[in-house]
Amino acid sequence: xxxxxxxxxxxxxxxxxxxxxxxxxxxxxxxxxxxxxxxxxxxxxxxxxxxxxxxxxxxxxxxxxxxxxxxxxxxxxxxxxxxxxxxxxxxxxxxxxxxxxxxxxxxxxxxxxxxxxx
Length: 118
Known about the structure:
Blueprint: H1 4-21, E1 25-33, E2 36-43, E3 48-56, H2 70-86, E4 94-102, E5 110-114
């Protein structure tokens, strides 16, 4: 693990592997539009799952999930509905999850999957 950007990329890769090990199919990673980015868009065969991945090297500034502010939640919801509109996905339940990862140098990462976080 290197700098902050590399830690984030490594965390998203780990999150994808974790989700796939749970039987969740990842449809897209790092989907971008003018308004922002969605980390992971996936499905469990029933719902569309929009995952926000937060990776930290420690908890000195709080738990990773605490970084998902009300403003971030609102932006993720707007982006998700934009994605649904662009791909013309209709009448599918949408679930918003947070994957909070603490990955200290030299340690195995800890993953907390918060289903239906918001």
